[in-house]
Specification:
four-stranded mixed beta sheet, about 130 residues, alpha/beta, 8 strands, Gyrase A, domain 2
């Protein structure tokens, strides 16, 4: 699972096998280590939750949690929908933009990884 943070936006990209794990377990987690000590690690997760109305981010105790409504999680993970987008109000008039998406194969310069979703643009490139 890839995590991208840029200013007030967060994006997760999941491969096929990660989407399957998310579907089966209701959550998927990964992490990054910043140094040799155990407290220099940040965990991040995507979790299906019946308690949220839209995508929601929570952070605490070295952990970033992205919560997705359970009904949305079921529809997204089991169908053709590519992404789930949302925003969360922050202090003042700021917004945190949240995007969770299935990871497509790159069109150029990447090896064929069967765990990535087929890129919808592949068929149009093959015609040229």
């Amino acid at each position: 699972m890839k995590l991208r943070i840029h200013d007030n936006s967060i994006r997760l990209r999941l491969t096929r096998s990660e989407v399957v794990r998310f579907t089966n377990e209701g959550a998927i987690e990964s992490g990054i280590e910043f140094g040799p000590y155990s407290n220099q690690r940040m965990r991040y997760s995507l979790e299906s939750s019946p308690d949220v109305a839209g995508l929601e981010v929570r952070f605490g105790d070295h952990r970033l949690r992205i919560l997705m409504p359970a009904a949305t999680a079921k529809e997204w993970s089991g169908g053709d929908r590519v992404a789930v987008a949302g925003s969360q109000s922050l202090k003042g008039e700021k917004q945190l933009e949240i995007l969770v998406e299935k990871e497509f194969r790159r069109l150029h310069g990447a090896k064929d990884d069967p765990d990535l979703y087929p890129n919808p643009l592949e068929s149009s490139l093959a015609q040229h």
